[in-house]
Design brief:
Blueprint (H helix, E strand, L loop, with lengths): L3 E10 L4 H11 L4 E8 L5 E10 L1 H12 L4 E6 L5 E12 L5 H10 L3 E5 L3 E8 L1 H12 L3 E6 L3 E4 L35
Antiparallel strand pairs: 1-3, 1-4, 2-3, 5-7, 5-8, 5-9, 6-7
């Protein structure tokens, strides 16, 4: 039983509470989430969630099936074994003096990254790439002194034509079951503002 990193990609309804339900299910199953990234998709009212977790294949498949039962999850797949492109974004605020600034700029250029802000005592670097590239740049910048780091976590798409999350326009959306409303003795009226 080998423990490996898995990339789960989910198409979810764009509603409040979805991220909480997904992360709570993973927490209850004792998974540590390495990263989780959520954003809008090309499809209206749907968001794409990329979750990176560690675990053996059987345990990850079991949790994937449980996540697929969550009402707000339209579809979820494990793309770990698929050919995919994965990237991460990081913003790094680095201490910089007049003498070290040019050396930092050279390192940033080598990594094809950008300096997005400059102040009298620091520079902010934007780096995009796979996790190894981001970590390598961070290792080099640590020698200058890192003040702050913000990382997005991994996002990924499978290579080639239609991806595994492609949903037809006439998709059937899971509708949450709602408890019937209790009969009110008073007629509801608008509030007095």
């Amino acid at each position: 039983m080998t423990i490996a990193r898995h990339i789960l990609v989910a198409l979810v309804e764009d509603r409040p509470g979805v991220l909480n339900r997904v992360s709570s299910l993973l927490r209850r199953r004792n998974f540590n989430i390495d990263s989780i990234a959520v954003g809008h998709t090309e499809q209206p009212n749907l968001s794409r969630m990329t979750i990176v977790v560690e675990g053996d294949d059987a345990k990850v498949e079991q949790v994937r099936k449980q996540l697929d039962k969550v009402v707000d999850v339209v579809k979820i797949v494990d793309i770990t074994s698929n050919e995919s492109v994965a990237r991460e974004l990081a913003l790094v605020k680095v201490k910089a003096t007049a003498s070290s600034r040019s050396e930092i700029i050279q390192i940033v250029d080598i990594f094809r990254s950008n300096i997005v802000d400059v102040s009298s005592d620091s520079v902010m670097v934007e780096v995009t790439g796979d996790e190894e590239k981001v970590n390598s740049l961070l290792d080099l910048l640590r020698g200058f002194g890192i003040r702050e780091i913000a990382r997005t976590g991994r996002i990924a798409l499978t290579r080639g034509g239609a991806g595994p999350l492609q949903v037809e326009e006439s998709r059937e959306v899971k509708v949450p079951k709602q408890a019937p409303k209790a009969a009110s003795s008073e007629a509801e009226s608008p509030p007095d503002w």
